[in-house]
Amino acid sequence: MLLVSVAFENPTQLSVRGKTDLFMDLFGNTLIRPFSSAYLNSKARVLTNIVTDPDYAERSAPIFDLEALKYKERDQLENVFRFWQNDQNHVFNIARYWDDRLRAQLGERYDHRDGAFDWDLQMRLRENGAKQICPQEYKHWRKTGVAFVFPEYEQTDPNKTFAVALVRNGNTFHHRGSVGDNTTGPYISFGQRCPEVRLMHSKHGVNDFRSTDITERNVHQIMYELEAREPYQFDPRDIHQFGAHQLDMGKALNAQDTRVEQPRAVQYEASPLLECTNLKLHFLSVEDVLHLQEGSRFRNHFDAVFVAYTYFSFVKDAFARTWKDEGCLLCLETRQMTTSSKEEIAAHTESIKTWAKRNSLQPVTNFAINKPHSTLRYKHQQSATGAVEECI
């Protein structure tokens, strides 16, 4: 909800450049700029009203459909948004949590972590195809959790959106700290390729543009087209170029005393999100997600399905009942763009192919081309007799 809100923020409040920087900050950095913290503080109040007041939600964010959420889940969301608001009792020392996870993960290798990071980058990520990631940005992210860095900004405040398992206890909150990926990085989502081939130029293994710069270019295009409703024309002035430069990133800071004052006062509540008449985001109850594959409520429902590689092991054959008869597109993520070994990637890819064959899926991905695929695409279609292929 937060990231979509950034993308559809009213242009009177945020420019395309402002949306781009804000999105990257909240999406990929454990520590964020003071302005991003102020936005999060303000937006948390708006999101609270959205989940608790249906009339307000219809006026300010009609793109969201929350009808399927139960009251208990709305209360839990309200607690999350309350924690995001700046208060001296809402402490989230993510820098310590990140370092604790790093120590537990590396063990004895922690004292030689630079070498471990370089191995993961050069022998795993780059070998697996993520060649746009530069050593300086990857190592900095592995050490601090701050992925996207620009010279004009300094990340100082904890990104509370990374907190998990929040439980309210009076005026304070209990949580399990921070969990999630800390080996691959957020560079894969937007920072590996773009239409301008020259931006991906590399000489002797040194990229002209970082994955951060490519991410900036692609996110900028998304924000522009959502606002202008016209194709984006690339302008080199829209992005940075620091691939060959060694930036002095300094020491990552963590604001122990949560910032209460806001660097910029913005009345987000008075500005509804941009209209989007052909799109609606439906948020499902946890129970709906658990029963999704039973096919009772969502039978013959989906035009397209995306399955992340971490969830593939939970997919059942009965899931096919939820796919539309007319032809559902299935996109199944592989482990290609991760720090997995080639053997692990190959085993996971083969399990996807076996599952697809068992469910009579037609491949859309051209497997004849000898190159790695980060996503395998299949098409589910009716049989010749017009009946849906039954999965056993």
The secondary-structure element order is HHEHHEHHHHEEEHEEHEHEEHEE
**Which structural class is indicated by helix and strand composition?**
alpha+beta
The strand line-up of the biggest sheet is: 9-10-12-11
How many independent structural domains? 2
Write down the overall mean pLDDT: 88
Q: Give the overall shape, derived from the CA principal axes.
A: globular
Please outline the major beta sheet. 4 strands, mixed
Proportion in helices: 25-40%
Q: What is the C-alpha radius of gyration, as a whole number of Å?
A: 22 Å
Specify the number of helices: 12
Low-confidence runs:
252-269, 384-392
Write down how many β-strands occur, each being a DSSP E stretch of 2 or more residues: 12
Distance between the termini: 37 Å
Q: Hey, roughly how much beta strand do the residues contain?
A: 5-15%
